[in-house]
Design a protein that fits this description.
Chain B: Keywords: Cytoplasm, Lyase, Nucleus, Schiff base. Chain B: One of its GO terms (biological process) is deoxyribose phosphate catabolic process. Chain B: Pfam families: DeoC. The complex is a heterodimer of chains A (518) and B (309). Chain A has 518 residues and is α/β, with parallel strands linked by helices. Chain A contains 16 helices and 17 strands. Chain A has 3 domains: 78 residues, no CATH class; 128 residues, Aldehyde Dehydrogenase, Chain A, domain 2 (3-Layer(aba) Sandwich), CATH 3.40.309; 194 residues, Aldehyde Dehydrogenase, Chain A, domain 1. Helices cover 31% and strands 19% of the residues of chain A. In chain A, the strands form 3 sheets. A 10-stranded mixed sheet of chain A has the order 5-6-7-4-3-8-9-17-11-10, with helices on both faces. A 5-stranded parallel sheet of chain A has the order 14-13-12-15-16, sandwiched between helices. A two-stranded parallel ribbon of chain A has the order 1-2. In chain A, α10 crosses α13. The longest helix of chain A has 20 residues. Chain A is globular. In chain A, 39% of the residues are buried. Chain B is α/β, with parallel strands linked by helices and 309 residues long. Chain B has one domain: Aldolase class I (TIM Barrel, Alpha-Beta Barrel). In chain B, strands 7-6-5-4-3-2-1-8 form an 8-stranded parallel sheet. In chain B, α10 runs parallel beside α11. Chain B is globular, with a radius of gyration of 19 Å. The chains are: A alpha/beta (518), B alpha/beta (309). The interface between A and B is medium-sized, with 26 and 17 residues.
Chain lengths: 518, 309
C-alpha cells in the first residue's frame, strides 16, 4: 500500500508458495504487472541485488543468523531490518490470585500462534489434571524436576503419516532449554514456576522473541503493577488474544514492533529515498571516542534512564523550561567557532517540546469487551551518531529528552560546543547526570561503535555514521535520520516532522483491560 | 474445613467470553443429531411445578414420561426397543403419591423426584424443611430436589450452609438428593463456585442451577463455573462424582444439544448419562419431539399430531 515495488529473492526450496503468490498477484489485475516479482535462486545473488543501482532498500526476512553473517556482515545496514527473528510468542503470567480455570480455558482456546509460555506462582501449585486427550488443564507436580512432557495423541490421518505437531505441554522446564530459545514448531506450552510477581517480570523480560504478555490475577493492584513493568508492547489483563486496537490482526498475538518497522517502507514527503550504497565521504581524522569512554557514557545513561523516564511529564517539562530560560539568559559572546543560539530556535524547540510533553498522554480505546490503554514509553538509552558536515543540529535533542530518553551523542568536534552549553543549561535546570552526554568522535563508523554498546535505540545521521549489520542486530530500533528532517536554523521543521520524531523516540505499549459486556 | 473459601477467584469477563464462544460451535446434524436428541430425552426430568397441578395433569405427565416420543417415530429410528423414557418426573410433594401410583399402574420404573425444603424461595424454618423432605420420601419420591437458603450464601455463613445441607441429606435417607443453588440469586460467580463446593462437601448427589422460577435461570457462564467446581471436587476427593442439572429456560432442542456438548467438553463423556446429568425442563420435550419428527418425516408436525405432556 505504500507504493513500493518488491523483488523477492528466495532459495529454490522455499520457492513454490512465493511463486504462487507472485502469480496470483498478477491475475485478475490485483496488482499491476511488475509490482511483485519473485526470484528463486541461491542466496549469493543478494550481493548482486545490493549492488544494483536501482534497488533502494534491502530487507531480510526470517534469515537465520548464520546466513546473515555469511552474506552481509561487514556491509552497511540499510533498509528496514525485519531480519531479526520474530516470534509470536505470548508470555502468560498466572499469579496466585488468578482464576486458574479461566486462564487454562483461554490458553487452550487461542488459535494459531501457540502461547508458548506459562509462568506459575508456586503457591497455587495444583493446576489440574492432564488427561491424555485434551490440553484443557495442566498438571504441575514438583516445580523443577523432573521435566515432564505431555503430548496429546493426534487422530490418525488416513495415509498421510505425521504431518501435524501434537499439542504439547512441558512442565518443570528450565530457562536454558532449547524449546524456549527457538521458535516453536506447533502448539507448545512450557510451564515455568516463579515465586512471585517480581520474579515473573524478570523472567518474562529475559525471554527472547516475545511479542505480547498476559497477566492473570484477580488482585487488581498486583495485576496492574505487574502489567506495567513488563517490557512487551502488548499486555492483556485476565484475557488472551484479544484484538489489538492499534491495528494488529485479530486472533493472533501481534508484534507491535512489526507495525513500526513496516512504516519504514514508506518515505516521508520531504525526503528522497536513499540509495543503498552511497559513495562514502573522505575520512575525517579525529580520534575515536575510545570504546571505554563510550561504554562509560552508555552505562551512565542507562543508570539515569529509569529515573528520568519514569518522571511525570510535567517534571521533565520543568527541566526543559529551566534550560530554555538559562539559554536565553546567557546569550554571551560566541567562542571557538561556536555558532551560538543566535535566533533562539533552540529555546523555542525546548519550550515547544516541554509544552508537548505536558499535554501528551495516551489514548484510551473502548471496544466491546473492555478498554485498551495505548501509551508510548521512552526507549531508554538513545544513541545519536552524527556525521553530516553540518554542525550538530540540536533540534534532535529536545524531543528525545522530553519523552524520557537518555541520550548519548557522538559528533564531530565542530558541533560539540553548543551541545555542551545546552547540556550545562539542562543540568543546571535539574537533568540527572548521565542523561545527556556529548562526545566528540570520528564520524566514520561511529554508528558501529555506538551500536556495540547496546543502546535501546540508535539514530544515524548521515551515511558515514552507518553501522553494519553485525552491530545493528543487537539494537532494537535503528533509524536513519533523513536529511530533510532538519532544516537550517531559522527554518521551520517540515510538517509531520514532530510526529515522526515523537514516534522514533518512543515505543508503543498497549494494556488491555477487559470488562463490561461483550 | 473452609480455609480454601477465601482463595476462590472467578474472573467474570473471562467466563462470559468463554460462554460466548460456545454459541459459535458447530452443531451436529442428521442422524447424529437424532441420536443426541434421544440422549437428551433420557436425561430430562419432566417437570410440572404450578399452583394448579391436580392428579389429572400429573397423570398425563406420567404417561408422557413413559412414552416421550411417539412409537412410530422411534420405530423409524429403530430405537423402539431400547426403553427410551425420561430420566425422572418432578412434581411438588403434595402430588408425589399421584405420580407414584400412576407410574406403578403403568408398569414402569421411572423415579419420581420431589422438590422440597421450601421450594422455590427457601425462606422457611429448618424444621419445616426437614419435615417436608421426610414426608416426600415417605410418599414414595426417590429423588429430592432441595433448595438452599440464599441468605446464608449472601451473608457468607458457609458453616451454616454446610450444616443445613447436611441435615437435609440426613433427612433424605436413601433418596437421591439434588441441591438447587438458585444461582440467579447468589450475586456473583465466585459465590456460585463456593456454594457448589459446599453443597458437594455436604453430600449432594447432584447440583442444580436454579429453581426455574427466578429471573435468570440456567445460563452458560453459571453452568461453566459449576462444572469446574464439580471437576475440582472430583480431583480433590479422587472418587466422588457429583452430577449436574441445568434447569429453567431450556426450551429448544438446539439448547439441549449445546448443554450436552458443554458437559462433554468440560466434564467428559462419563457425565453424559442420566445418573450424572439431567435437564430440568417441561416444554423442551415437545420441541425435541418436533425435531425428531422432522428428522424422520421431513416436515414439522401439526399441533395435534404430537401428544401433549
Amino acid at each position: 500500500p505504500t507504493g513500493n515495488t518488491a523483488l523477492v529473492l528466495c532459495s529454490p526450496a522455499t520457492a513454490p508458495p512465493l511463486l504462487l503468490l507472485g502469480e496470483l498477484s498478477g491475475e485478475g489485475e490485483a496488482l499491476p504487472p511488475g509490482v511483485l516479482n519473485v526470484l528463486a535462486g541461491p542466496l549469493g545473488l543478494c550481493q548482486a541485488l545490493r549492488a544494483h543501482p536501482e534497488v533502494t532498500s534491502v530487507t531480510f526476512l526470517g534469515a537465520p543468523q548464520e546466513e546473515l553473517q555469511a552474506l552481509v556482515w561487514g556491509s552497511p545496514c540499510r533498509g528496514p531490518r525485519l531480519g531479526r527473528p520474530r516470534g509470536g510468542r505470548v508470555v502468560v503470567i498466572v499469579l496466585d490470585s488468578a482464576d486458574l480455570d479461566s486462564a487454562a480455558a483461554a490458553i487452550t482456546a487461542t488459535p494459531a500462534t501457540p502461547p508458548a509460555l506459562g509462568l506459575l506462582g508456586v503457591p497455587r501449585g495444583q493446576f489440574g489434571d492432564a488427561p491424555a486427550g485434551t490440553l484443557g488443564s495442566v498438571l504441575v507436580g514438583t516445580p523443577i524436576f523432573p521435566t515432564q512432557v505431555f503430548q496429546a495423541p493426534l487422530p490418525a490421518l488416513p495415509g498421510r503419516g505425521d504431518r501435524f505437531y501434537p499439542p504439547t505441554l512441558i512442565s518443570g522446564a528450565a530457562l536454558t532449554l532449547r524449546c524456549l530459545q527457538e521458535p516453536a514448531l506447533g502448539p507448545l506450552l512450557v510451564l515455568l514456576p516463579v515465586r512471585g510477581p517480581g520474579e515473573a517480570v524478570a523472567v518474562a523480560s529475559a525471554l527472547p522473541q516475545s511479542a505480547a504478555a498476559a497477566v492473570w490475577a484477580q488482585d487488581i493492584t498486583v495485576a496492574l503493577d505487574t502489567a506495567d513493568r513488563l517490557p512487551q508492547g502488548l499486555v492483556w489483563l485476565n484475557a488472551l488474544d484479544l484484538l489489538d486496537p492499534s491495528g494488529g490482526c485479530a486472533g493472533g498475538a501481534t508484534d507491535t514492533d512489526l507495525d513500526e518497522a513496516l512504516r519504514e517502507f514508506g518515505c516521508p514527503p520531504w525526503e528522497q529515498p536513499p540509495k543503498v550504497d552511497e559513495p562514502l565521504s573522505p575520512l575525517v581524522t579525529v580520534d575515536d571516542p575510545g570504546d571505554p569512554e563510550l561504554a562509560q557514557a552508555v552505562a551512565a545513561a542507562r543508570g539515569a534512564a529509569p529515573g528520568w523516564g519514569r518522571l511525570p511529564g510535567a517534571s521533565r517539562a520543568r527541566v526543559l523550561r529551566g534550560a530554555a530560560a538559562a539559554l536565553g539568559a546567557g546569550h554571551g559572546t560566541p567562542k571557538d567557532g561556536d555558532n551560538g543560539d543566535t535566533d533562539g530556535s533552540l529555546q523555542r524547540a525546548l519550550l515547544r517540546w516541554a509544552a508537548h510533553v505536558e499535554r501528551v498522554g495516551g489514548a484510551v480505546q473502548e471496544v466491546p469487551g473492555g478498554k485498551a490503554l495505548l501509551t508510548r514509553r521512552p526507549l531508554g538509552v538513545l544513541g545519536v551518531a552524527w556525521s553530516w558536515p553540518r554542525p550538530l543540529a540540536l533540534q534532535l535533542l529536545p524531543p528525545a529528552l522530553a519523552l524520557g530518553n537518555c541520550v548519548v551523542v557522538v559528533s564531530p568536534p565542530g558541533g560539540v560546543g553548543p551541545a555542551q552549553r545546552l547540556r550545562k543549561a539542562l543540568v543546571a535546570a535539574g537533568l540527572p547526570g548521565g542523561a545527556l552526554t556529548v562526545l566528540p568522535g570520528n564520524s566514520r563508523g561511529s554508528g558501529s561503535h555506538l551500536a556495540r554498546q547496546h543502546p535501546d535505540g540508535l539514530w544515524l545521521c548521515g551515511g558515514d555514521a552507518d553501522c553494519d549489520w553485525a552491530c545493528a542486530v543487537s539494537v532494537p530500533r535503528v533509524w536513519g535520520v533523513p536529511a530533510g528532517l532538519l532544516r537550517a536554523p531559522g527554518q521551520d521543521a517540515p510538517p509531520g516532522a514532530e510526529r515522526e520524531l515523537e514516534l522514533r523516540c518512543t515505543r508503543p505499549h498497549c494494556l488491555w483491560l477487559p470488562g463490561g459486556g461483550p | 474445613e473452609l480455609g480454601w473459601i477465601s482463595k476462590v477467584y472467578v474472573n467474570r469477563p473471562a467466563v462470559v467470553r468463554h460462554a460466548e464462544q460456545i454459541k459459535n460451535w458447530k452443531t451436529v446434524k442428521g442422524n447424529w443429531q437424532a441420536a443426541w436428541l434421544l440422549k437428551a430425552v433420557t436425561c430430562i426430568d419432566l417437570t410440572t411445578l404450578s399452583g394448579d397441578d391436580t392428579p389429572s395433569n400429573v397423570q398425563r405427565l406420567c404417561f408422557k414420561a413413559k412414552h416421550p416420543i411417539r412409537e412410530d417415530l422411534l420405530k423409524a429410528l429403530d430405537m423402539h426397543d431400547k426403553g427410551i423414557t425420561v430420566g425422572a418426573v418432578c412434581v411438588y410433594p403434595a402430588r408425589v403419591s399421584d405420580a407414584v401410583n400412576t407410574l406403578k399402574a403403568a408398569g414402569c420404573n421411572i423415579p419420581v423426584a420431589s422438590v422440597a425444603a421450601g421450594f422455590p424461595a427457601g425462606q422457611t424454618p429448618l424444621e419445616t424443611k426437614l419435615t417436608e423432605i421426610r414426608l416426600a420420601v415417605e410418599y414414595g419420591a426417590r429423588e429430592i430436589d432441595i433448595v438452599i437458603s440464599r441468605s446464608l450464601v449472601l451473608t457468607g455463613q458457609w458453616e451454616g450452609l454446610y450444616e443445613e445441607i447436611r441435615l437435609c441429606r440426613a433427612a433424605c435417607g436413601e433418596a437421591h438428593m439434588k441441591t438447587i443453588l438458585a444461582t440467579g440469586e447468589l450475586g456473583s460467580l465466585a459465590n456460585v463456585y463456593k456454594a457448589s463446593m459446599i453443597a458437594m462437601m455436604a453430600g449432594s448427589d447432584f447440583i442444580k442451577t436454579s429453581t426455574g422460577k427466578e429471573v435468570e435461570n440456567a445460563t452458560f457462564p453459571v453452568g461453566i463455573v459449576m462444572m469446574r467446581a464439580i471437576k475440582e471436587y472430583y480431583w480433590q476427593t479422587g472418587y466422588k462424582v457429583v452430577g449436574f442439572k441445568p434447569a429453567g429456560g431450556i426450551r429448544t432442542a438446539r439448547e439441549a444439544i449445546t448443554w450436552l456438548m458443554l458437559v462433554k467438553e468440560e466434564l467428559g463423556v462419563e457425565w453424559l448419562t442420566p445418573e450424572l446429568f439431567r435437564l430440568g425442563a417441561s416444554s423442551l420435550l415437545g420441541d425435541i419431539e418436533q425435531q425428531i419428527f422432522y428428522h424422520v418425516t421431513g416436515t414439522y408436525a401439526l399441533q395435534h399430531e404430537l401428544a401433549v405432556a
